[in-house]
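User: Please fill in residues for this 301-position structure.
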C-alpha cells in the first residue's frame, strides 16, 4: 500500500507539472502543442498502467501471505493437538519407570546392608552353607562326574586300540615285515612309555588264547620280543602280568609258561617265571609243582 501511494503521488505530481508547463507555454504552434499534449497523455497512461499492475501484485501478495499464515496456523494446531488418552499413557509410563527405579534402589540397599553385617559380624551358618558349602559341593560333584566319565571313555578307547593291535599282530603272525609295520603304526597311536608294556601284555593274552603251541609260534613271539628291545628279566615280568590277567584260563597260562621257558635263556629270566608255576600249582591240592612240570613236558611233546 505504501508503494502504491508513493507511485500514485509521484505520477500525479509529474502530470501536474507537465500540465502547468503546457499551460504556461505560448500558443505559437498547434503541432508543438499537440505533440506535448500527446506526450503528457502517454506519460499519464503509463503511470496509471504501472499503478494498476502494482495494485494487482500487491493484492496477490496479500492473498498468498494470508494463505501461508492460515496453513501455518493449521499445522501448529495439529502439532499441538491434545488428547486425554495421551496424558493417561504418559502417566502410566512414568509410574512404571518410577517403580523400577525404586525397586533397583531397594535391592542395592539390601545388598549394602548384608555387606555391612558381614563386615561386622561375619557370615552366619545358614549363609555360609547356602553361599559356600552348597555351591562347592555341586561343583565338586560335577567335576568328579566329568572326570570319571572322561576317564572311562579314555580307558575304553585305549582298551579298544590295544585289542585291535593284538588282533592285527596275530592276523599277520609269521609275516615279520607286516608285523613290524603294524607295530610301528600302533606305537605312534599309543605313544611310548608304560603303554608299550600294555601293548605287549595285550598281545600275549590274545596270542595264548588263540594260537596253539608250535615252533612257528615260538619264532613269532621271539621276534615280537625283539621289537620291544626288552631284557629277558623285563620280558619275563610282562609274561607273568599276562598270566595274572588270565586267572580263569589255566590252559592259556600253561602255554605262556611254555613259551617263556623256550624263549628266555638266562637264569634271571627263567627265575622271573616262577609266579606262573605257583599259580598253576595252586589249582591242585597236592603235588602241584610236579603236575605242572609234567604238563609242560607233555606240551613240548
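Assistant: Residues filled in for all 301 positions:
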Amino acid at each position: 500500500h505504501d508503494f502504491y501511494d508513493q507511485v500514485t503521488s509521484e505520477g500525479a505530481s509529474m502530470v501536474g507539472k507537465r500540465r502547468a508547463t503546457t499551460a504556461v507555454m505560448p500558443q505559437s504552434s498547434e503541432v508543438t502543442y499537440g505533440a506535448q499534449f500527446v506526450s503528457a497523455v502517454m506519460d499519464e497512461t503509463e503511470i496509471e498502467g504501472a499503478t494498476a499492475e502494482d495494485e494487482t501484485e500487491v493484492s496477490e501478495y496479500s492473498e498468498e501471505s494470508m494463505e501461508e499464515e492460515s496453513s501455518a496456523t493449521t499445522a501448529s494446531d495439529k502439532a499441538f493437538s491434545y488428547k486425554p488418552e495421551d496424558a493417561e499413557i504418559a502417566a502410566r509410563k512414568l509410574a512404571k519407570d518410577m517403580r523400577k527405579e525404586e525397586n533397583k534402589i531397594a535391592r542395592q540397599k539390601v545388598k549394602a546392608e548384608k555387606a555391612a553385617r558381614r563386615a561386622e559380624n561375619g557370615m552366619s551358618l545358614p549363609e555360609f552353607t547356602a553361599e559356600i558349602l552348597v555351591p562347592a559341593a555341586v561343583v565338586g560333584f560335577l567335576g568328579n562326574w566329568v572326570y570319571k566319565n572322561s576317564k572311562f571313555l579314555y580307558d575304553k578307547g585305549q582298551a579298544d586300540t590295544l585289542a585291535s593291535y593284538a588282533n592285527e599282530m596275530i592276523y599277520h603272525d609269521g609275516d615279520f615285515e607286516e608285523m613290524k609295520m603294524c607295530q610301528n603304526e600302533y606305537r605312534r597311536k599309543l605313544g611310548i612309555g608304560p603303554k608299550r608294556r600294555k601293548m605287549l601284555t595285550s598281545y600275549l593274552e590274545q596270542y595264548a588264547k588263540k594260537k596253539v603251541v608250535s615252533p612257528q609260534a615260538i619264532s613269532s613271539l621271539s621276534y615280537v620280543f625283539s621289537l620291544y628291545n626288552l631284557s629277558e628279566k623285563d620280558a619275563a615280568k610282562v609274561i607273568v602280568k599276562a598270566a595274572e590277567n588270565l586267572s580263569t584260563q589255566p590252559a592259556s597260562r600253561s602255554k605262556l609258561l611254555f613259551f617263556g621257558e623256550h624263549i628266555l635263556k638266562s637264569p634271571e629270566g627263567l627265575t622271573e617265571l616262577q609266579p606262573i608255576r605257583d599259580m598253576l600249582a595252586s589249582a591242585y591240592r597236592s603235588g602241584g609243582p610236579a603236575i605242572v612240570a609234567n604238563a609242560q613236558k607233555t606240551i613240548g611233546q
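For context: The mean pLDDT is 75.
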